[in-house]
């Protein structure tokens, strides 16, 4: 659906920094036009984050995915805070999203990426953060993917896991894979697997 965004107006009336640490939190007062044409003012806290890049790594020759597993504080209320995830990182330097994906694949999984294809860009939680995700799929040689990786200065402790494609999709189905970027990427892969396989093999 095409939206005429010119008919909807908003204005940031006040912005105050609440916290600056590993992440930044701001307090915003915003006025915006309602659908009925009237105006309302809202106050919200906004988690300010750089855009992130997430990459689904696929090895069609070996019929494998390459995922990473690491501890996540936001998942501590669940059964297991060690999550199976995509290689990922923040765009915090003068790099393109593709360059970030290639750098993070080396840092987190010890692999070099071949061809990459953009899956989509999306906001994971726009009610509370301005972060945008650049989601990719990339070809990789899974024989190079093993061991523990991550940067000591970022307190990273990242384990590489290389399930078969069928096993990885089973993890999606049974809830082992339970984070948004990985779910979206794997579901996209299911829809595009044959086309991608024909292009890359």
Automatic annotation (TrEMBL):
EC nos: 3.6.1.13
Reaction equation(s) it catalyzes: ADP-D-ribose + H2O = D-ribose 5-phosphate + AMP + 2 H(+)
Keywords, in A-Z order: Hydrolase, Magnesium, Metal-binding
InterPro entries documented for this protein: NDP_pyrophosphatase, NUDIX_hydrolase-like_dom_sf, NUDIX_hydrolase_dom
PROSITE patterns: NUDIX
Domain Nudix hydrolase: 47-185
Class of enzymatic activity (EC top level): hydrolase
Requisite cofactors: Mg(2+)
CDD domains: NUDIX_ADPRase
Functional note: Acts on ADP-mannose and ADP-glucose as well as ADP-ribose. Prevents glycogen biosynthesis. The reaction catalyzed by this enzyme is a limiting step of the gluconeogenic process.
Similarity field: Belongs to the Nudix hydrolase family. NudF subfamily.
Name listed for the protein in its UniProt record: ADP-ribose pyrophosphatase
Species assigned in the record: Reinekea marina
């Amino acid at each position: 659906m095409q939206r005429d965004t010119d008919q909807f107006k908003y204005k940031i009336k006040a912005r105050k920094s609440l916290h600056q640490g590993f992440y930044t939190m701001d307090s915003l007062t915003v006025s915006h036009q309602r659908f009925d044409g009237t105006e309302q003012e809202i106050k919200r806290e906004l988690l300010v984050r750089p855009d992130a890049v997430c990459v689904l790594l696929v090895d069609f020759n070996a019929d494998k995915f390459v995922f990473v597993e690491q501890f996540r504080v936001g998942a501590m209320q669940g059964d297991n805070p060690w999550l199976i995830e995509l290689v990922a990182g923040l765009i915090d330097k003068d790099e393109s999203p593709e360059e970030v994906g290639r750098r993070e694949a080396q840092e987190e999984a010890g692999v070099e990426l071949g061809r990459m294809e953009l899956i989509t860009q999306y906001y994971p939680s726009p009610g509370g953060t301005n972060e945008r995700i650049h989601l990719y799929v990339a070809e990789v040689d899974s024989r190079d993917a093993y061991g523990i990786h991550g940067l000591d200065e970022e307190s990273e402790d990242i384990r590489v896991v290389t399930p078969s494609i069928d096993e990885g999709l089973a993890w999606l189905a049974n809830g082992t894979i339970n984070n948004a970027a990985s779910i979206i990427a794997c579901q996209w892969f299911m829809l595009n697997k044959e086309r991608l396989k024909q292009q890359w093999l």
